[in-house]
Amino acid sequence: MIGRLRRSATAWAVGLFALVLAMAGLLVASILRYEDLQKRMDVRLPEASVWHSAQVEVEIARFLDALLRFGSDEKTGNADELRERFEVLWSRIDLYRAGNLAVAIANRPDYRQLVDELQALLEATDSILDRLRPGDLIEAHALHDRFKPFLGRFREMTLQDLRRDMERGEELRGLHQQVTRHVLLFVGLFLTAAVLVVVGSVRSTRQMHRLFDVAEAARTDAELSRFQLRQAVESINEGFALYDAEDRLILCNDRYRALYPARAALIRPGGLLAEIDPLAAQRRGESAPTENRLEDGRWVLVSDRATDDGSFVCIRADITELKQRECELTRTKVLLEQQAAEMRTLAKAAQAASEAKSRFLAMMSHEIRTPMNGVLGVLELLADGPLEPGQRRLVETARSSADALLAILNDILDFSKIEAGQLQLEPVVFSPAELVAGVADLWAVPTRAKGLEFRVEQAPDVPAFVRGDAGRIRQMLLNYVSNAVKFTEAGRVTLAVVCRPGTGAGRMLRFSVSDTGMGIPAARTADLFQDFRQLDASTARRYGGTGLGLAITKRLAEMMGGEVGFASRPGEGSTFWFDLPLPEAAAPDVVAEPVEPGPLVTVDGRAPSVLLVEDNATNQLVARAFLDRLGCRTQLAGNGAEAIDAAARQRFDVILMDISMPVMDGIEATRRLRAEGTTVPIIALTASAGAGDAERFRAAGMNGCLLKPIVFGGLRAALAEALTGASIGMAAASAEPESARPVLDREHVDRLRAEVGDEIVDTLIAAACQDLTQVTETCRQALEKADRPALRTAAHALKGLAAAIGASALSARAAAIECVAKDPEADLPQAPDLPELLAATLQALSSATMTRSLG
Amino acid sequence: MITRLAGLLVLASCLLAGQTARAGTLPEPSGPVLLTVTGAITNRNGPDGARFDRAMLEALGLSELKTSTSWTDGVPTFRGVLAARLLDAVGATGKVLHAVAANDYAVDLDADEMRRYPILLAMEQDGKQLRLRDRGPIWVVLPRDAYPELQSVSQDQKWIWQVRSIEVR
């Protein structure tokens, strides 16, 4: 719009300028013309000369008239009159000699010629007139004749001038007309220009109005924009202010004003940032938002930013409430954290209590088992002795009760282990067929004794080898079988293993035990597999058991990723099963002795009774833990003499005999036992199985030898062999180089943990630390005293003790000392490093405990 | 003192002139009459009017006027009687002066104008008496150099020379 107006105004101005230029040109031309005219007008001499020449003619005529009158009459001839006429004529000619007239004829030679001739005649006549007599007609005529031609000549001049004058008049008229035309043209142009100016000014006024309109519209727009901007600025939730590059306030909203009530007077357009908000002025240039606390305690979030043109935008968000909430949140958080800490403490306490309970339970079971073994031993002795029928019945009842009690204890021990999460599966490669066969073998005799048929069924598609915890599976199967046998009065018990449909990893092996017993009442099926449930109190009284068997089976199956179930028809029988995902495995390279970590049973299905002869507390603990796990009833004897007493009181299935003991060593005790005619298998426990030792043990009447430290597998194998009457191999000693021994064999400790559980190992380590310190001190004292026998005993004890806990280096050192002590010729070694070694061992043991508790 | 004396002299001459005018009489010309004033005048020295010879005119008091003219070269100095003085001398009452020359040229002059400007009835040019052949003996000379309004072409006709008589109308 403005551009168009500007272009139009420019065109108009150019037009006007051109017009003015034309007018100026015309004016100049007119002025030149006019000057020309003026000049010509000024030359009025021709006009005057007409008059003059005419006057000269008149005066000549008058003079000639006077001359003729003077010459014709000598009386009336008036000389004064003649002279006057002459003088006047003279004065006429004289006019041509100076002034304007002289200029006029200057360039007219004919005129000059004429004037000069007349002048000459007048001068000549001047003196003639003085001499002229009145009546001298001849002379007068003569003069007359000389003047007369001048009449005609001056008339001719006059006519000539008249003609010239007329011509000039024409010319002047022409000039005049031209000037007039110019003037008219000029006036026309002037009027045009004036019209143009008027039109132009009207137009420009209109354009001005339009410009004003545009400007007004723009101003209205700007005001609207400003209003909208202000509204927008007012409507935002934050305090907003805009400062120009010189930090003068341009605009702000009420919220901004409200933030600085103390400086409200300063907050107006033009107000200085430094006065309104000195902090922001200092921070100009930083754009990171900050939180500021205002004088009245409110909090604002300040986010200031400089714009590209140097302006400064201030945004203030009132975050007082946010801050308060934040404070509250912080307080709440602290409270919650306190509560959480309390909860954690409580949870820890609860867990600790639970663990303590589990530990207590495990320990109690453990502790109860020892006297139970005693009770069973005594009962067995009683049963062996001569009894009246009534007494025998009582003894048998007591025995079965004690057996039941022991089973309950084992169940509780297992269950509490599962509860405490201490039970770990030990997957191995095994043959399902062999496992089932083993269970069948165990129960074949008792089942038949009850008059039941025992059948084993195996589907042809069951893999030859699978991977799984064979020991636990065996335990589960035994649970089912023992229940089946227990609750079936007549008919048969069938043990079966089949493949459940499924592929790959989903392939399940189903182990099932069916019976033809009384079945499960429909109302009670829901309670089966529940913890601590039995069908009813009467059943419990009649059949005994904790009811934990099924619960343990269920838990174990679930641990293995499988499930349990049953089908029953009351009065017809039941089928209990469990499905396990056991991946098929390749046959092991060496068909090792089947690992049977499950409880051992005697040939007649009882839990084996074992006499453990061991003087050292640590070794006692380890052996007992293994034996417990193997389901053995263990009795303790501190030395050979006690062992002989115990064996005399009770019949044991196996005796585990330490060799080196105070009072009476293992060799001597075995010799005496054999001498008394005892046939119980005796297995030697020794830390030093030298080449000759095995022979020595056999000679004394021992059936086998277990190398200390005792390992679970070895103990189990030895016991299993002893229980089945097989011969037990004498393990050969394996002497490793001393230097290679680590302070603590962590693998050994880990193995122990896996085999007997962390708790027992920790207890073991605690006890070992005490024992090691004590024995090492004994050893040191013996060295000091050079008491060879004492040194030998102490070193031997230390060797075994250290080996049991995995303190290989200390064990090896002790073995070396023992070796020297045996030889009377050898110099006794100085062993200043013993305490050091002990300290290192203790530290390692302590850290092993720590690591466990931390892990 | 000198100024006052001059003032007295002027006053005296005025009184004298006034006395002459009031007397209504003009002396008889003793020499040849150069100029005759007739018509509406109060002072005469004959039945036709007031006749002046050279001495009478000179007695009216001579003034000088230096001016260029259309008929002379250079700037001549004229000497003669101021027209106003002559009119006073004759007691002219008319508005128009009808002047007639020896060559019968006649022109009407405005009496007020004659009084308003120092217009001269010149009788000498550059110290020499104007003869008839020199446009004398009396030539009306206007102070055209001093008054631009007297310079126009139309003013030239008022420069009547060889004046013989003036009739006051």
TrEMBL record, chain A:
Residues 757-852 form the HPt domain. The keyword Glycoprotein does not apply. Residues 609-723 form the Response regulatory domain. The modification Phosphohistidine is found at H796. GO terms for molecular function: ATP binding. The keyword Nucleotide-binding applies. This is histidine kinase. Keywords: ATP-binding, Cell membrane, Membrane, Nucleotide-binding, Phosphoprotein, Transmembrane, Transmembrane helix, Two-component regulatory system.
UniProtKB/TrEMBL annotation, chain B:
Residues 1-23 form the signal peptide. Gene3D superfamilies: Oxidoreductase, molybdopterin-binding domain (3.90.420.10). It comes from the Bacteria. It comes from Benzoatithermus flavus. Keywords: Signal. This is Oxidoreductase molybdopterin-binding domain-containing protein.
